[in-house]
Specification:
heterotrimer, A mainly beta, B alpha+beta, C mainly alpha, B: alpha+beta, 60s Ribosomal Protein L30, Chain: A, 4-stranded mixed β-sheet, C: mainly alpha, 3-stranded antiparallel β-sheet, 4 strands, elongated, Cell envelope biogenesis protein TolA (chain C), signal (chain B), OMP_bac (chain B), cell outer membrane (chain B)
Amino acid sequence: MTLLRLLTPAILALSILGLGLPGAAQAQDGPLRIEITEGVIEPLPFALPTFIAENPEAQEWAQRISDVVAADLTGTGLFRRIPRDAFVTDVTEFTPSVTYANWKAINAQALITGAVNVSGDQINVKFRLFDVFSEAPLGEGLQFGGTSGSWRRLAHKVSDAVYSRITGETGYFDSRVVFVSEQGPKNERQKRLAVMDYDGANVQYLTDSSSIVLAPRFSPDGTRVLYTSYETGFPQIYEMNVGTVSRIPLQVPAESMTFAPRYAPDGRTVVFSASIGGNTDIYAVQPGDTPRQLTNAPSIETAPSYSPDGSQIVFESDRSGTPQLYIMPAGGGEPRRISNGAGRYGTPVWSPRGDLIAFTKQNAGRFHIGVMRTDGSEERLLTASFLDEGPTWAPNGRVIMFTRESAGAGGQPALFSVDVSGRNLTQVNTPNAASDPAWSPLLP
Amino acid sequence: MTTLRAALVLTAILGLSACSNPDRFGSGNPGDGMPFDPNAPGMNGAGDITSGVLDPASPEYFRQSVGDRVLFAVDQSTLNDAGRAALSAQAQWLQSNPGYTAIIEGHADEQGTREYNLALGARRAASARDYLVSQGVSSSRLRTVTYGKERPLEVCSTEACYAKNRRAVTVIAAGAALS
Amino acid sequence: MQPGTIISGVAHTALILFALFGGMFARDELPPPDVAQVTVLSEEDFAALTRPDVADEPTPASEAPTAALEIPDTPAPEPDPQPEPTPAPEPTPEPEPAPAPEPQPDPVPQPDPTPDPVVEPDPEPAPPEPVPEAPPAPPQPEVADDRPVAPVDVPRPQPRVSTEATPPPPPEAEEAPEVVEAPDPEPAEAPEQVVEDQTPAAPPETAEEIVTEAERPTQLTNSAPTGTPRPRGRPERPATPPRSEGTTSTAASDNVNQAAQETIAGLQQLLEQAPQEGIPAGPPLTAGEKEAFRLAVRQCWNVDTGSQAANVTVSIRFQMTREAQVITSSIRQTGASGGSDAAVRAAFDAGRRAILRCQNQGGGYNLPAEKFGQWQEVEVTFNPEGMRLR
């Protein structure tokens, strides 16, 4: 201390330099500069001690919630949970400070601590996230509360917060997926509409299997679903309220078969394709209005999808002879082709971020899910199999879920997800065979 | 009156069995060589309720003897010679049996996206329908539907099966002209 | 009649009847989606929860967030699978196996041989013995002494199983050793790759936690005489003031805040060194020395190629002690381009982690001590361009 005081003048001088032009005092002109252009790609190891139960009733919930949070994070492929038996110490108290050294020692880069308390049917979860090597908390602690029936959502909320703080992007764990649950032989499939949590939990059925149902799509607010049903014997689009399971047919052109619906970002306008007299074109309709035809060509125009700003529509057309992807103004107009590679392209879906378009590609006897920029450049294929199709984006535009069907008489569809980087291909668990997933927005 | 009643029953049963009837999409499942399988109650629609199995005026006859389907090449909806011949025969039958209407189903093989195949099936059905109309069948008696790849006839994943799945099937229905 | 026939007959009849009538009422009403109540809890509230004694916290500001997100609890919060009130006696819709309950063992074998990134067999070394509480360490004035004591350069757990084997001593390693005159310079054969217990390393880490600002001067005076020999096992000394102070911050941009808060401490530390007999600038680092340093940081830079942050090029500047240890509080962002604020923040965090993690877990980087002036301050530019998805 004394010494420090003695050196005060020097300190002052240096602190000015240190703040202003660091390094100037040294022999060198500036800092040592290095540039790194290549890093590693690996899951970030995190420690997640089982959340603390603040009362005895919370014991079981604390365990379950901790497990779901860990599963959410590791499921992304971006994080890796460090097994508990590797811990130097466990966490027994939910405190704002932690002994970083204990977590550095096991090379945990992030530490997630939490606590759960239960009163009656109410569960409260709070958590903190720490950057171990920086020895600092990452963001504020958060608390979520809900009923015991929504405990998974509470866990997903925690995961979303953690994910968001580390990756800088919004999460996608507290979301749902609507899909078609399938049973029965290939030539006699029974199809039902169902919804589930993004991870396959909490499956609930929206229709029975008396008619074929296809390709459901969530509304931007997640409360409604558009889908195609054969309940009249002909394909026709319906809109269902997910809460009440009531449904109404979409206003469509006369004498048409309609399918491939999708909401505009406004949640009101619906774009879809209608086959009239064997020719399929794209239409848009607003509630209470008559449908407006957006394309008018003898070729097939289908699978429309809006850009996130609602100004454009990407769709599939075989006007060139094979199915390719095109973009046109949302009100219709001259389309421009964006797909240029070999093969056939279909089911384009605009990413919620707006920067990419996911699609199905068929080439040389294989199917792929791929992404490209909206001008068609930088095409990347993320998957390859006998039959992959129908991509849907996670609400943050980071993950794509799709249908993968196996070949042969016993072939069955299943849902898979893949990171937009092409890594972390994973099957989504569903009770039965499943197809046509569509991701909801992040739940409120 | 009997016809009407039979038609009602037929319709009811067809509707009922729509989801469990493997024959609904014309596979001729109980042995393609057999004109009719009496052991499959309700499976073949009017077969065991109306008059004769081989009544030339029956939908069953149409299906088995006239031929209810035409096949298409990959990604095509244009008719080949065999297809046109089959449709000509269908047109003749329809004209001699004006009490029936027909729904033409368009199908695709599994190679292709769901949406595109729906559109393709619609094209194929329309192609068959147009030909029937050109042969004198009133368009008011015909309706089309596409199933895309939802109802394959054959379930293997080879061209042998695909070739049979790329089809338009004329399904005879009783009753007056469709509105 | 065969029993089978009878059963079959009955079953079929039931099925038909069911199909006829059962379906009419079968409508799986779906319960409204669960709604969670979300409350943002500020640090203060948190603190209050955990240590209620801190009553004098500047709570006012935090008042708002607490009340903030009360998620509408509108629809029946009853998340019961089938809470439909009316048609309770609805038999399971169709003759279909009970839907939801089917747990179906998810053994689904990954049908695709796609890259399964996480294959590493859990490299966690699981330190056998927990860090001995070593509070006495910090106060100890003669830091120099306990350095030798600790088996200083014991191989520490290799931070990462990096994709490329980048041993700190790269090809040009010969250059590095020659400038190192430290008594215990084992830079070359540093068995960095060996993964095993780092028990010895733990004590210093523990110590560092407890080191307080007040103690530092003493230590520094001590190290001054020793000159530049750079004892490597020395506990990292990030000027981390008691964390509790930092935690009270309510700013969203914690990182920045924290850095700011600690900058003063960091500067002090830096300055404390400066006065000591000048700074040996030495000749510029050789290309080999620079490259070795670059590779060392690089192997800890984890890039999330699918993220927006992967579009961000960020420059990070920091200071090091004579022992080539990063002064945590000095780390700051000096430039960034190519992304949203959140993406930049994530990119900065990743860079900072790389800088901190790869300093041999507290042992400092391998840099020639006599050129301290050359690397006392470093600016690393993390440019993920080469890793962008193509």
